[in-house]
Every structure is written in structure tokens, then in C-alpha cells.
Amino acid sequence: MQTFLQGGGVMIKHIKLNHDNLAFAIEVQREIFPYEDATKKYTEMVNGENDNNYFLVYNGDECIGVSGLAHYGADVEDGFLGWFGILPKYRRLGLGSEALRLLDETARDLGYRRMRVIFNTETGFPGAKTFLKVNGYTAESYQCPRDRVSLSGNYAILSRSLYNEPCEPWNNRNLHLTDEEK
Ligand SMILES: CC(C)(COP(=O)(O)OP(=O)(O)OC[C@H]1O[C@@H](n2cnc3c(N)ncnc32)[C@H](O)[C@@H]1OP(=O)(O)O)[C@@H](O)C(=O)NCCC(=O)NCCS
Prior knowledge:
The protein is α+β, with helices and mostly antiparallel strands. It has helices at 22-32, 39-46, 95-109, 126-134, 177-181, and strands at 2-6, 10-16, 53-59, 62-70, 78-81, 85-86, 114-120, 138-141, 155-161.
């Protein structure tokens, strides 16, 4: 469990999902992302069937959101944010930025060198891109000829180095989003 202490009594913690908090985590995820359902990926992680890392985010004793880290196939240096979100009543208080900073530490511990986010400019939360840019991410368009859904032009990848080094762009490598949507 990672924690972050700040003046003003903010204490952010990431608590990894387990059998006991799984149902609650799904409720929180569904409140933040009403059109997405993480049940399958969360359950697989808890059962040891995937190596993603999903967390509940707490400020002290209060659950304020969910967060997650995943990677694609053998590419173990690029960590993708998965279902990272803050419950509506806790937004615009700087808590999302603190939770993201704390997740960076976990990401480094897991061996990632860069953080990435797939963003759908049509369906994504409008403030998310600004939030990520304010937190140091840069955007590139994602259009991969072998990943058909990306050719709609609606996808962006936002990236940030986890170290003091320039962040290599994603450069349209295949994310297989088309297969995932089937
Ligand atoms: C995006 C999200 C995580 C931001 O969480 P948060 O706790 O409100 O973020 P912060 O308070 O740390 O915001 C930091 C800065 O990001 C920007 N920002 C955050 N939300 C914004 C919004 N809705 N519109 C415009 N800018 C926004 C602002 O510059 C903000 O600073 P300010 O409040 O001083 O103006 C939250 O709104 C959320 O969970 N959204 C739904 C889920 C989602 O889109 N997840 C994907 C995130 S990668």
C-alpha cells in the first residue's frame, strides 16, 4: 500500500483490490465510468489471471476513487492508466493530481518507464485531457492502419516519462483496440 502525506490533512492511499473489496470497487468504478464495466478485468486480477494492478483510492478513511495500471503484451516499460477516476463530489480539490503522483511511484516500482493513457476524444470525459496535460502529459494522435477503430481519428495517446528523460512517443504501435471492442 502506498500513501501520500500533504499539509492540510490530505492522506492519499492506494489499496489493491482483493476478494473483500472487489464488489465495492466495482460500484465505485461504475459511478465514475457509468458506460464501462471493469468487472471482468478486476475479477481476473483478484484471481491472479492477469498481471494488471487495480486499486481503490482513499483520502484518509474516505474512498475517493479508483485507479489502475496495465500494460500491453510483452511491452513492460509502458504502463497504461486503467480506470483512473475521482468520485464527482471530490473533484477539483487537487486529489486526482495527488493520486496520479502516488500512482507514478507504484508504476516505477513495477518497472515502468513511461505512463500512457488512451483517450477517446469523442466519448472521453472532457476535462480529462486538460487534467492530464496539467499533470505533465503530452498528446499525440493514435491512428494505426492495423487497428481499424483508431482510423476514426477519435483516439489520442497521452504520455509522460516517469524519469527525468524525454518521453518517446507511442508512434502508432498497434494497441489492438479493435479486438477489445469485439
Ligand atoms: C479527470 C479527473 C480524474 C480529475 O480529478 P480531480 O481530482 O478533479 O483533478 P484535480 O483537482 O487534481 O485537477 C487538477 C487540474 O486539472 C484540470 N482539470 C481537472 N478537471 C477538469 C475539468 N473537468 N475541466 C477542465 N480542467 C480540469 C484543472 O486545471 C485542475 O486544476 P484547477 O482545479 O486548479 O483548475 C476526474 O474529473 C475524473 O475522475 N473524471 C472522470 C473519469 C476520467 O475521465 N478519468 C480519466 C482520467 S485520466
